[in-house]
Specification:
The chain has 241 residues and is mainly β. The protein is 7% helix and 39% strand. The protein has 2 domains: 40-168; 170-235, OB fold (Dihydrolipoamide Acetyltransferase, E2P) (Beta Barrel), CATH 2.40.50. It has a 5-stranded mixed β-sheet, with no helix packed on it. Strands 8-12-11-9-10 form a 5-stranded antiparallel β-sheet, with no helix packed on it. The protein has a 5-stranded mixed barrel with strand order 13-14-15-17-16. β4 and β5 (72-77) form a beta hairpin. It is elongated and about 80 Å long.
């Protein structure tokens, strides 16, 4: 007679496989019967993959909600914006996960993080931000919320970054055309006095004394994450009635 301990149903085998996958997703591996650490400490924050794509090790995504399973899990997806409007950014640990909606991935904690990059050179002090669309990697951007510490010497296309928790929300701008009071218009973004060729839509509802702004007026715009809009915050003293 077969040993009943060694005989189990396909359903039980599936439960065992799911348990092993979950243990791996936490970032912990067993060494000689004791819990050892691979790459990072285990974290209690587990995310459920809602992207429909595999999440690579150290990939950065955005939290978009929660799902109640045997415990409360956070939901992770590709980044939808660069100002954390849809939700905060989080970074996977040393194990990624598959593309299935049931796949789970452990998240790094703290503000010094190992994050996947777009293969650009990682220079200490440079700022980077998330990429929208189907990407789990950071890209260089002067206004990004992640400050590079240095390249990672173990994982390919991975760097060590400090999370400032918020991207730069202010921009030097110049109006491309007249903007009427309580309206919006296109402004060119400048950096160090040079046109970056990036344009943003700025709303004129504050710091304008009820006046319209003429074209080519220099000033400052600030992004409001709650409204997901840029607002004129003043600058040039010239305005048209």
């Amino acid at each position: 007679m077969a040993d009943p301990i060694a005989a189990f149903s396909p359903e039980t085998a599936r439960e065992i496989l799911d348990a092993v996958r979950w243990i791996r997703s936490t970032g912990v591996r067993l060494l000689g019967g004791s819990a050892g650490i691979l790459g990072m400490p285990a974290t209690d924050v587990i995310a459920l993959n809602k992207s429909g794509a595999a999440i690579p090790a150290y990939g950065i995504g955005q939290l978009i909600g929660t799902t109640e399973k045997e415990r409360n899990l956070v939901d992770i997806d590709y980044a939808a914006d660069v100002f954390a409007v849809a939700g905060p950014y989080v970074v996977a640990g040393p194990f990624g996960c598959g593309s299935a909606a049931t796949e789970r991935v452990s998240l790094q904690s703290g503000r010094v993080l190992r994050i996947l990059t777009n293969a650009a050179t990682v220079t200490a002090g440079a700022r980077w931000h998330v990429q929208t669309g189907d990407s789990w990697a950071l890209a260089p951007n002067a206004y990004g919320q992640f400050i590079a510490v240095g390249a990672d010497n173990v994982a390919t296309n991975t760097g060590v970054f400090f999370d400032t928790l918020e991207p730069a929300l202010w921009r030097d701008v110049k109006t491309d055309a007249t903007i009427a009071d309580n309206a919006s218009g296109t402004c060119s973004v400048y950096r160090d006095g040079t046109d970056t060729t990036v344009n943003i839509t700025v709303h004129l509802k504050w710091a304008n004394d009820g006046l319209a702004l003429a074209a080519n007026q220099e000033g400052f715009a600030r992004f409001c994450p709650a409204a997901a809009k840029w607002f004129w915050m003043g600058g040039a003293c010239e305005a048209t009635p």
